[in-house]
Amino acid sequence: MTRRIIPVALCQQQYSADVAANRRQNLASIAEAASKGARLVVLSELHDSLYFCQTENVDLHDLAHPLDSESCREYARAAKENGVVLVCSFFERRAAGLSHNTSVVYDADGSEAGRYRKMHIPDDPAYYEKFYFTPGDLGFRPIETSLGKLGVLVCWDQWFPEAARIMALSGAEMLIYPTAIGWESSDTPEEKARQREAWITVQRGHAVANGLPVVTVNRVGHEPDPSGATNGIQFWGSSFVAGPQGEFLYQAPDDRSEIRVVEIDMNRSEQVRRWWPFLRDRRIDIYSPLLKRFND
Fold this sequence. Notes:
It is a single chain. This protein has 296 residues and is α+β, with helices and mostly antiparallel strands. The protein is 25% helix and 28% strand. The protein has a single domain (5-291), classed as 4-Layer Sandwich (Nitrilase/N-carbamoyl-D-aminoacid amidohydrolase). It has helices spanning 19-35, 70-82, 161-169, 189-210, 267-275, 278-281; strands at residues 5-12, 40-42, 85-95, 98-106, 112-117, 123-124, 127-128, 143-145, 148-152, 174-178, 182-184, 214-217, 220-223, 233-236, 240-242, 248-251, 258-265. Strand 6 (123-124) and strand 7 (127-128) form a beta hairpin. Helix 1 packs parallel to helix 2 and helix 3 runs parallel beside helix 4. The longest helix is centred in the last third of the chain and has 22 residues, at 189-210. The radius of gyration is 18 Å and the shape is globular. The mean pLDDT is 97.
């Protein structure tokens, strides 16, 4: 079997209210990652702005833009100039009053390889995403790139095993999660630890259950709540890469920005799936209860 290694860059960053400055930072990060040998670069969720979903404010819809905007073209050019496959995350304006939380993948020639619209939309204190985003309508389809088929999902999707499974069953060779998640300061240290470890564990479980590497890139740093209703969010970083047995290949710190290139051996998935043939042994004839909200 020909050895197939993909160097993947995790761009874990802290962001500000200055959208133009954030874009400059992201473009510099892409170039730095490429200089370190990355062929696949992953940015975090909604990387052009602060995480604006802490409040419900109609004026913040001004942050949305169509996917043919100049800001998107900047990232396409960055992919081409640096010769990398690039996973971006945008507040997509589709029409007046209709927006999505959308990941776009640009191939190394600058072309759009594909897009994914976030399917699971949270609505919790400090995460009022239903106010801004319409659930995705593109399904769970891997995006074909020059590096292979990428199963791109977004943040809250990472808690749902169904999303990971469908991506795997559709031929994804890697699961990728641009993310924005953190702690609210009133939580106890014990609760904070439980939350972060649950977040890590569920995604490592997707790696194991599907025999695929998982790449998760979170933002980092404190972002205040403009309403003052909470003390804001301390994003916990901790971006990581897990192999197809859930093994850590790398985990970033929880308190600072970092650009790290991690080599993923894509041949391991083939071997792990031979050892643990979960897809072979699935009982698809008896899984219909999964199509119900709850089995009373």
